[in-house]
Amino acid sequence: MTTSALPAGRLAAFLAPRLGGLPRVFWVLWTGTLVNRLGTMVEPFLGLYLVSARGLSLGQAGAVVALLGAGSMAGQVVGGFLADRVGRRVTLTLATVASGASMLAVGYADGVPAICAAALACGLFLDMHRPASAAVVADVIRPADRTRAFGLLFWAVNLGFAVAMVLGGALAAHGFLVLFWADAATCAAYGLLVWRAVPETRPERAADAPRDGGFRAALADRVLVGYVLITLVYTFVLLQGMTTMPLAMREHGIGPSGYGVAAGANGVLIVVAQPVVNAWLGRRDHSRVLAAGMLLVGAGYASTVLADSLAGYVAAVLLWTCGEVTAAAVLQAVVADLAPPDLRGRYNALYGVAWSGGYLLAPLGGTQLLRLGAPALWLACGALGLGAAAAQLALGPAIRRRHFSSV
């Protein structure tokens, strides 16, 4: 064996259990997800754009962003319904192409009413593809590999977003409309890629199958509802890093550049750690992995009580990012185990509503807690993380029964 072959052999042995054995359809979806996230430049800068470029007040800008969040919740529901009724491929293509068009509508809308209407439409289409995307993964990936597949999609999302933040900041210097066009172009590219390279994966219904119960059947699943509520609490805590943390850092004299360093630490750790630990975590009991992740996220935010410098905030971010990486390894795989094949779109829609709801509630509840003082906010996050972890452990036996029945 040559010395040059040894590193290649070791690299292959490292990559095979992490990347090998997944079908072409998945990698097309993964590529589309990465391309789409590379263009996610409008959302992080939307508030700044509305205030500085369009002259809206802080209250008006907040209302527009809230409408975007409300549209996102509705989009999850519509997307789940269409994925099960019309099909995954059509839903993915429709949602991504329409998302790009509505993004341009926001950029060119004239007047507050028009901007609000465009933002609501944009929110509707922006996340409509997510239930269909998750349903495709559940359709084509066997249960033993789903944690790996969903973890790789999570990695693509964060890798693309990290690059988009850097590019978006640079492109914004040349005018905000460039961001809208870049976002629209990557959305359209994702839709075109899906239409050309992703076949319809929706399982055929058997002639003697029971009548489609729709969202009523999904909401009657107590395990799913419990899991969605736990996810909502977890999301509320996790998203404080994008909502109230920069406000708390400002009270310690740390400005936007400092927050950018802390947020960047989150992205770097995810991109580096997720591919390494994902396969290992996926082989462990899902509920215990989730409980550990939620506990780490809560502990990370609680430790922010001690932070009064940039180094302190970065340390807290790195701790809760470890929890985010841990939980992300199995979060969507649990939904795939719980969902009957003909309801995968709707089950993933309800899971997505928990995330959209978290995006709405995190700034509202977090800022109210922050008014009581930063310690109240961070200790409340720690308590909520602990509560979510305990609830997840209590739900664990029911999830395990469903997991083994799906294998």
Describe the protein in words:
With 407 residues, the protein is mainly α. The chain folds into two domains: 22-143 and 172-198, Growth Hormone, Chain: A (Up-down Bundle); 214-407, MFS general substrate transporter like domains (Growth Hormone, Chain: A, Up-down Bundle), CATH 1.20.1250.20. The protein contains 19 helices and no strands. It has helices at residues 5-19, 24-38, 42-52, 58-85, 88-108, 112-126, 129-140, 143-172, 177-197, 214-219, 222-238, 240-243, 245-251, 256-282, 286-302, 310-328, 331-338, 344-371, 374-406. It is globular. The two termini are 40 Å apart. The relative contact order is 0.14. The model is unreliable at 1-6 (pLDDT under 50).
Count of discrete domains: 2
Strand segment count: 0
Helix content: over 70%
How would you sum up the major sheet? none
Pick out its properties:
407 residues; mainly alpha; Growth Hormone, Chain: A; 82% helix; globular
Brief summary:
This protein is mostly helical and 407 residues long. It contains 19 helices and no strands.
Tell me the layout of helices and strands.
Blueprint: H1 5-19, H2 24-38, H3 42-52, H4 58-85, H5 88-108, H6 112-126, H7 129-140, H8 143-172, H9 177-197, H10 214-219, H11 222-238, H12 240-243, H13 245-251, H14 256-282, H15 286-302, H16 310-328, H17 331-338, H18 344-371, H19 374-406
